[in-house]
Amino acid sequence: MATTADDVREIALSLPGSSEKLAWGMPTFRVGAANGKDRKGGSGGKIFAALADDDTSIGVKCPREDREELIAAEPEKFFIRPGHDDNYAWLRVRLAAVEDTAELRSILTDAWRQAAPKRLAAAHPELDGPGPRRPLTAG
Q1: What pTM was estimated for this model as a whole?
Q2: What long-range pairs does 122-126 form, CB within 8 A, spacing at least 24?
Q3: Buried b vs exposed e over 6-30: b needs ≥16 C-beta within 10 Å?
């Protein structure tokens, strides 16, 4: 069963401290700001996921050093846009290649963990993996 943009939105917004904000013409999902505002009144929060404008893929926060291995292991699922993502801790995921909503939840939770403030992440050990900020892992 392919996952959808609606699945992304439902799961992303179910994660603690998450909010949705339109940026660059796309829905982005952020963590770490109450009511979508930071303490200084800015747009607030760190982006952990963003839907592509055609709703067929998402970008997720991922350590740059992990991307090559993930793409090599599952190139039909994971990719980057050369020239655009090269210098960012970001990975793209084709929604049609995600096995089910459980796998999508795992991907989004890993991305959330990368962006969440330490105090918020520590308050939700049920979302924690083997380390306080375990990187995104394939399947």
Answers
A1: 0.85
A2: 123/16, 124/16
A3: ebbbebbeebebbbebeeeeebbbb
Reading the block at residue 77, the tokens are 């699922």
Instruction: Report pLDDT for 103.
Output: 96
Query: Where does 31-100 have alpha helices with state H?
Result: 64-73
Count of CB atoms situated within 10 Å of the CB of 62: 26
* Calpha distance 76→67 (Å, rounded): 14
Q: To 10 degrees, what angle do helices 5-14 and 101-115 make?
A: 50
For residue 41, the model assigns a pLDDT of 52
Q: Mean pLDDT of all residues in the chain?
A: 87
Closest CA to 114 of 68, 63, 69, 77: 63
pLDDT given for residue 134 in this prediction:
40
